[in-house]
Amino acid sequence: MPPPKKSRRRPKSFLTCPQCGSADLYYEAALITGYKYHCKKCGYIGPFVIERDLTDEEVGE
Ligand SMILES: [Zn+2]
Fold first, then answer.
1. Pseudo-torsion of CA 25, 40, 46, 44, nearest 10°?
2. Confidence of residue 33 (pLDDT cuts 50, 70, 90)
3. Domain ranges across the chain
4. Average pLDDT taken over every residue of the chain
5. How far away, in angstroms, is 37 Cα from ligand 1 center?
6. Cα 26 to middle of ligand 1, angstroms
């Protein structure tokens, strides 16, 4: 049996802001409310973000 094909790249995904779509998010831990994300661009703070897959064009190392 031939070995399984290696994919050139692993699929990647990233998180985007539900308000402005920016991927410029950072993750914050808040002791009382739990974890949440903070968008640098629009200032959104909350637990909900949108996970997106990278397209080939966006995958650049
Ligand atoms: Zn935002």
1. -140
2. low
3. 14-52
4. 83
5. 10
6. 11
